[in-house]
Amino acid sequence: MRPDETSLASLMALSQAGDREAYSTLLQASKTWLQRYFSRKVPPCQLDDLVQDTLLAVHHKRASYDPSRPFLPWLAAIARYRWVDHLRRVYRANEVELGDSLPAIDEHEGISARISLDGLFAMLPPAQAQVIELVRIEGRSVAEASRRSGQSEPLVKVNIHRGLRRLSALIEKAR
Q1: For residue 34, what are the contacts with CB-CB under 8 A and spacing of at least 6?
Q2: CATH number where 84 lies
Q3: Do 121 and 129 touch, CB atoms closer than 8 A?
Q4: Three-state SS at 152
Q5: Using N-to-C axis directions, what is the helix angle for 71-93 and 20-39, rounded to 10°?
Q6: How many domains does the chain have?
Q7: Angle between the 44-61 and 20-39 helix axes, to the nearest 10 degrees?
Q8: What is residue 92's three-state secondary structure?
Q9: How many angstroms separate the CA atoms of 127 and 156, rounded?
Q10: Is pTM beyond 0.90 here?
Q11: What are the angstrom distances between the C-alpha of 6 and each of 60, 65, 69, 141, 162?
């Protein structure tokens, strides 16, 4: 059976009324639709798990379906959210601990790097050096750098851009 909107919507309405056979048919048709939907989004080895996860979500959310509305957009929304959750899980599983792969930096290298950075910052206007320090070195937000420096947010962004461009030119010139 190729799932179409009308038949799926009527199967879902019957399922909500307690028809087990209609529910079984709905799940089978939804499975077929979901396999086609996900086949271009995930590797084949992840397809079955994602389809099953989505069908489980459909089962849990079936009471929220409104029979007066189309079924396929409802199913597609659930599928899309399951797919995004799946991507998050995959990316989290593939994260590498940075602490294990970074080379050890001895204290003297860190001090000399800071001295070099301070020397470069001395060649910039103080407003540019300050916001680069706040945003790029300390990791503060543009809004927070704006509050701390007394500059407007657009000015903070401009000063960061101009300052980094000037630092790049200075470093290139020193080579």
Answers
A1: 50, 51, 54, 55, 75, 79
A2: 1.10.1740.10
A3: yes
A4: coil
A5: 50
A6: 2
A7: 140
A8: helix
A9: 8
A10: no
A11: 22, 14, 11, 50, 59
